[in-house]
Specification:
The chain has 779 residues and is of the alpha/beta class. Among the domains are: 7-70; 82-181, OB fold (Dihydrolipoamide Acetyltransferase, E2P); 502-539 and 550-770, Ribonuclease Z/Hydroxyacylglutathione hydrolase-like (Metallo-beta-lactamase, Chain A). It has 27 helices and 24 strands. The chain has an 8-stranded mixed β-sheet with strand order 15-14-13-12-11-10-23-24, with helices on one face. It has a 7-stranded mixed β-sheet with strand order 16-17-18-19-20-21-22. The longest helix is centred in the middle third of the chain and has 29 residues, at 387-415. Keywords: Cell membrane, Membrane, Transmembrane, Transmembrane helix. This is Competence protein ComEC. It is found in: Cell membrane.
């Protein structure tokens, strides 16, 4: 190998080239390239030849990625929405939803197909669909939507990296299905059959863990349990990776030798079998990496090559990025290679003879978590500092107890399935441990919330992380300086937030509901008005329609947005009234955030849901405050005025808390779900209703709100409307939109624009922006 001992340097450059090409080079790409050249010059001094060669190779990779990405363009679709298509991957059926990527047979175009199942019979037929079937499908094609909330998961971008540019919403489930299987399809069928066998013969939660360890399939895991593994930094123990590949390779190799194969024959066979094992276990980036490295080691032994661990890792990364540069954006790829590289680079002092097993295990866990911090913060905005301690005992438990039990259960299925009863104690122990870990996950102090870092922040933090890991082999003074700098970088967002003069008002897209987050300058306070909530229309006799983890605005929108802003404390959670689409998401906020005060109207609490919510407030230890017209509290040296309710309203919507406040030189009026009668009362009250600049329309733009008289009285410059796309109620109603257009008042709607955010500073005109970037309005 002409680059023997140098593949890791080329792999680092290739990763940077892929990132720069896909995200736009800019100043960060230039700085990154300069750092790379300086690093190569330092490593290979006094030679110039190798740095020049490696830099040129990275430039070629950069241009290749640009060409690769430019070729990823949307194809023309059939004029009609009907066609025969081949199912590309195993269909996913969740409740009354069917989702699967398919390839339109005639055009060879990949699209993402969806179907809403009408009855249980359709669900059973959908569950019988397999990868490789060619079926006749009818529906409408649509472009994927961009993210509708700031810093949220972008499904369109995800599909783009899968080279899919269209969604196909099917009118009915696929029909006239015929097998068109390839050998790859048969492998996937065998994998899914194994998962089904595990699901039918083992009990939860052991079944979910066993399916993950044996087949790389996590769909049997309870969503709450899987989230717990992710947040506590334990998800790697469920990933098929180097340990699994190493064990399988060793066992297969010894079996081949036992059956009289020569060493050369055994190693050659291993090279062919490892890709099959990767496919049978889901071909996630971690197992692909491990399989490639296993193949390289086998080839090195076969042909007597010198292959260092870093060379193997670097060459595997290069192969994966050359095959698909979009791997660089995959969190599994990032974590797998970063953590493995960190452990390899630290092996010199990590496995010193003076260290005992527990000490080595602790430092392996610590190094892994430190190396993962930049990636975790970029994707999840938080990390758990408890994770190294949990890994200290959980990794041995899984490796020495659960993993062998999962493998043994697989073989017992072929001997006598009735013997699987011996795993009942395993299931009980695992259930107990999961419950304990879920409790640990609920400890808010166990997590450090960083906020959404930019690529520049990640770059700087990655350099600091590399310096910290290198300092482990240096003098204690150097290590202290490295630790201090690293901790300072982690705390920097909190420091800057406390002096930042910028404030934000964000109307989040929570579907058919309301949620508004107000961040006051210098992080004086964070107030949240409502938290969204999805009303379920599933009847008791339609349990088959229930999804494993249905959309929940508090968990899926409001909470992640707050974390993306580095927010862990809510000063006031204001629930305008007792409708689920306003307080349903608050249950999650009470569990996941330090909610100091909960504000509710001084009205009768009649509904069972409201009473359950008040119970949750008491359990969370938040102060409960009831307000009525005439009350107020201070923000930014000015009062937040409560204009309603009065206290004797009977209709739930008219019990809404109405707030008025000057924010960023603009007068704001937040209406909750106040309707006609409530608006009339505000107009006619003794205290004259002042004109406002920004009106948050009542009741999602319903015709029962934003009446002509009220609109004339407040005369807004802009109206915010929170409504779900294609909602069942038709909000916002056409007559309201026409009324606003007649008055030349722009309507900023979440169903069209996604989340809408107003950014302001005292004494400086503010600016509106939309998450979907379709419209921008400035004051």
């Amino acid at each position: 190998m002409p680059l023997n001992g140098r593949w890791i340097y080329l792999a680092v450059g290739a990763a940077g080239a892929c990132t720069a090409a896909l995200h736009g080079a800019g100043w960060l790409g230039v700085v990154g390239m300069l750092c790379y050249v300086i690093w190569l010059r330092y490593v290979f001094r006094p030679s110039w030849l190798k740095p020049v060669f490696l830099t040129a190779a990275v430039a070629v990779i950069y241009m290749w990625v640009l060409v690769f990405d430019a070729a990823n363009q949307a194809d023309e679709l059939p004029e009609e929405g009907s066609a025969y298509a081949v199912i590309s991957e195993t269909p996913q059926v969740d409740g009354d939803r069917l989702r699967m990527p398919v390839e339109i047979a005639a055009e060879g175009i990949q699209v993402q197909a969806f179907a809403f199942l009408q009855n249980e019979a359709e669900k059973q037929k959908s569950e019988a669909l397999k990868q490789g079937m060619e079926c006749y499908m009818t529906g409408e094609f649509e472009r994927p939507s961009t993210a509708t909330n700031f810093h949220a998961f972008d499904y369109k971008e995800y599909l783009y990296t899968e080279q899919i540019h269209w969604q196909w919403f099917l009118e009915a489930i696929p029909v006239d299905c015929q097998p068109a299987y390839t050998w790859l399809d048969y492998l996937e069928h065998y994998r899914q059959a194994g998962v089904s066998q595990v699901a039918s013969l083992l009990e939860d939660p052991f079944a979910g863990v066993a399916a993950a360890l044996l087949f790389g399939e996590r769909k049997l895991l309870d969503p709450e349990v899987e989230t717990m593994y992710q947040r506590l930094g334990l998800i790697h123990v469920l990933a098929v990776s180097g340990l699994h590949v190493g064990i399988v390779s060793f066992v297969v190799y010894r079996v081949f030798i036992r059956f009289a194969l020569t060493k050369v024959q055994a190693l050659t066979s291993l090279v062919w079998l490892l890709p099959l094992y990767a496919l049978l276990t889901g071909a996630a980036p971690s197992v692909v990496r491990a399989a490639l490295i296993g193949m390289l080691v086998a080839l090195a032994l076969r042909f007597h090559w010198k292959l260092s661990p870093l060379d193997g890792l670097g060459f595997a990364a290069l192969l994966m990025l050359w095959a698909d540069p979009y791997y660089i954006q995959h969190i599994g790829f990032q974590l797998s290679f970063l953590i493995t590289a960190a452990i390899i680079l630290s092996r010199g002092w990590l496995f010193e003879k003076k260290r005992n097993y527990l000490s080595q295990l602790f430092f392996v866990s610590l190094i892994s978590q430190i190396a993962a911090v930049p990636v975790l913060l970029y994707h999840f905005h938080e990390f758990s500092w408890i994770s190294p301690l949990l890994n200290l005992w959980f990794v041995p438990f899984m490796t020495l107890f659960i993993m062998p039990a999962a493998a043994l259960s697989f073989f017992i299925v072929f001997i006598h399935p009735s013997l699987l009863v011996i795993f009942s104690p395993v299931n009980s122990i695992l259930s107990f441990i999961h419950d304990a870990l879920i409790t640990v996950e609920s400890w808010r102090f166990g997590f450090i919330v960083f906020g959404q870092p930019s690529l520049g922040d990640v770059f700087v933090l990655s350099l600091a992380t590399a310096g910290l890991l290198l300092s482990f082999e240096c003098h204690r003074r150097v290590m202290f300086i490295a630790w201090s700098g690293w901790v300072l970088l982690l705390g920097w967002p909190a420091i800057t937030a406390s002096i930042d003069q910028t404030g934000k008002v964000t109307m989040l897209d929570v579907g058919q509901g309301d949620s508004i987050v107000i961040q006051w300058p210098q992080r004086e306070a964070v107030d949240v008005i409502d938290a969204g909530g999805i009303v379920s229309f599933i009847n008791e006799d339609e349990s088959w329609r229930e999804q494993s983890e249905p959309f929940e605005p508090g968990r899926d929108v409001v909470g992640p947005y707050l974390k993306s802003q580095g927010i862990t404390k809510i000063d006031r959670l204001i629930i305008t009234h007792g409708h689920w689409d306003h307080y349903g998401g608050a249950f999650h906020l009470l569990e996941a955030f330090d909610v100091r005060k909960v504000v509710y109207g001084a009205v009768a609490v009649d509904e069972p849901g409201e009473q359950r919510f008040l119970h949750a407030v008491a359990e969370a230890g938040s102060e409960f405050i009831q307000v009525r017209a005439g009350d107020s509290w201070m923000r930014s040296d000015a009062p937040v005025q409560v204009l309603a309710p009065i206290g004797h309203e009977t209709d739930l919507n008219d019990r809404s808390i109405v707030l008025q406040k000057t924010i960023g030189q603009m007068e704001w009026l937040f209406m909750g779900d106040l309707e006609t009668e409530g608006e009339r009362r505000l107009v006619q009250q003794e205290r004259a209703l002042e004109e406002v600049d920004v009106l948050k329309a009542g009741h999602h733009g319903s015709r029962t709100s934003t009446t002509p008289d009220f609109l004339e009285a407040v005369s807004p410059e802009a109206v915010l409307i929170s409504a779900g796309r294609n909602n069942l109620y038709g909000h916002p109603h056409e007559e309201v939109i026409e009324r606003l257009e007649m008055n030349e008042v722009p309507a900023l709607r979440t169903d069209q624009l996604g989340a809408v955010r107003y950014t302001f500073q005292e004494g400086v005109p503010g600016k509106f922006e939309a998450a979907r970037r379709q419209k921008e309005v400035t004051n």
